[in-house]
Protein: Deoxyribonuclease-2-beta
Amino acid sequence: MAARLPRTPLTLLFLGLFVETTTISCRNEEGDAVDWFVFYKLPKRRDRENGETGLEYLYLDSTTRSWRRSEQLMNVTRSVLGKTLQQLYKAYASKSNNTAYLIYNDGVPNGVSMSVNYSRKHGHTKGLLLWNRVQGFWLIHSIPRFPPIPEEGYDYPPTGRRNGQTGICITFKYKQYKAIDAQLLIYNPKIYSCSIPATFHRELVHMPQLCANSSSSKSPGRHLATFQSARGQTFLHFAKSTSFLDDIFTAWMAQRLKTHLLTETWQRKTQELPSNCSLPYHVYNVKAIKIPGKSYFSSHQDHAKWCISIKGAKNLWTCIGDLNRSPYQAFRSGGFICTQNRHIYQAFRRLVLYYENCK
Structure:
């Protein structure tokens, strides 16, 4: 029988550091680590009295095959976002030099003293990264004013209740963060809370500068990056800067993915682009979303940003991200992360009630 090493204070310290540096991950509602998850926060519809709060959501992760309606509400710490962000609050409280985070949103939370919201200088982007030298997660979402700064703990903004919202969380090994660092430079996100200890500065050049609002690096007009999740799922990430003056779906994503796309973005009246069939691969606007069951809602009630390959295409893609199909968004930076995961595609495809053809 092998002899056991005595548990000296030094051994316990090493074990504690080992646990600390291996556990950051996207989390499900049970608090278990998952490779990825997606959520669809449902809108609070004004046309019916059905007890909806605007906090209900659909959920799918790497261990499941289809949407399920969560029993939790999005504003509680037992929700999937609440469970995942608990890691941020623990890292903030520990003041550890081994962990970094970066939170960005073009609509900053109430109480954060910053310049005017929704500036064209910054990306139309919303997200959060938390990582150490082993791994971390990247949460990309469409919720304005979310999340609160870490010292305030978890909450969900009242402004996020009325419309639908989407998001994706992906767990990445640390070696992927250099590529993420380069993509964020293209975004130029509006960062309102961050902590990136010096131990990361040699490998991650741009995020510390963006965190300090001191970046002078010149970014390309656009860049496509390939990522691998912690468990080997491939993702493509499209990032465009303000110098790429075109609709990201029509001019780039559909043509690069070689598929017609059904796009669901916030279709505000007078601020929408029509479906486009001018290039080899077409882009169609989804007009109504079907909730599992018998109800549905209009794209005018949906602040989500996602697209999927049209039914019958050879390449079945799902992309989740930041930008709307709007004439004004052609001037904004932002992007989408895309996957050919079959379960994610089927889940989103079942939500499409009908879409707009080209005129």
About this structure: Helices lie at 9-20, 80-94, 177-187, 206-211, 248-257, 342-349.
